[in-house]
Amino acid sequence: MTGDDEFIEISGNEQAKTYLKKSDAEPVDWSEIPVTDDEGYLVTSMLTALEGDVRIHAVAPDGRKSEMWEGEIVKAIGDDQPENITFDWYNEHPNSQTIHFEAHPRTETGFIEVVEKRDPEKFYSAATKRYDASTKLVYDEHGEKRLYTSLATELEPGTTYAYRVNVDGIWSEESTFVATNRSRDTKEEQLSTAKKPNSFLPYHFKES
CATH number of the domain that 100 lies in? Predict the structure, then answer.
């Protein structure tokens, strides 16, 4: 450290203090954070530069304060396009296929479309089936992302299917898989993963 007038301390942790050059710092007027709407919601991007543990409370116009909320701001990772499409070959349902895929946490809805590869009309065919995905936010050491899971049913074992994945109106590339009739008791293990280049690391599942 070369002088108090050249650096400012941005972390009060005595064990691991963090400093920043004054020339790289930009003062923020926290009074510019907007007030809540009529339903009590606040939407702002002013907090997105923070990462780590935070404490936040609401202040009413008359000065009354809410209880302190303690939480953690984490990095949002991933893309708006579906990524890390993973097949779970061990299904509790016969003639079915579980498909997981991931996207940025701000995405909301996802589904897959499946049709037999030999169908000349492909995804424009009336035989195309749509399977909506369940969704949840997941977190690991890299940050937070949204995990989607779809279950394709009524598949014919040994048949090659074409599929594509949709997240909030954005499609993945088309690909194929061969349906199986394996159960979770099957000893043979197969895993098929399609990754987009430069995508975030896949979330690893630990089966209970």
Answer: 2.60.40.380
> In sequence order, what are the residues at sequence separation of 6 or more whose Cβ sits closer than 8 angstroms to the Cβ of residue 143?
74, 75, 76, 77, 200
Is 203 inside a domain boundary? no
In the numeric block, which tokens belong to residue 141?
């050491």
- Domain region containing 94: 83-194
- Of 197, 81, 74, 174, nearest to 124 (Cα)? 174
Count other C-beta atoms under 10 Å from residue 186's C-beta. Answer: 13
pLDDT tens digits, one per residue of 16-62: 566 666 676 666 666 667 777 777 777 666 665 566 777 777 777 78
**Nearest of 106, 10, 78, 15 to residue 50 by alpha carbon:** 10
| Domain termination residue (choose one: 73, 97, 123) | 73
Contact in structure between 189 and 175 (CB atoms under 8 Å): no
Cα(131)–Cα(113) distance, integer angstroms: 6
Ramachandran category for residue 2: left, alpha or beta (phi over 0 → left; psi -120 to 50 → alpha)? alpha
Whether residue 200 lies inside any domain: the answer is no
Q: What pTM, to 2 d.p., does this model score?
A: 0.63
Q: Is residue 201 part of a domain?
A: no
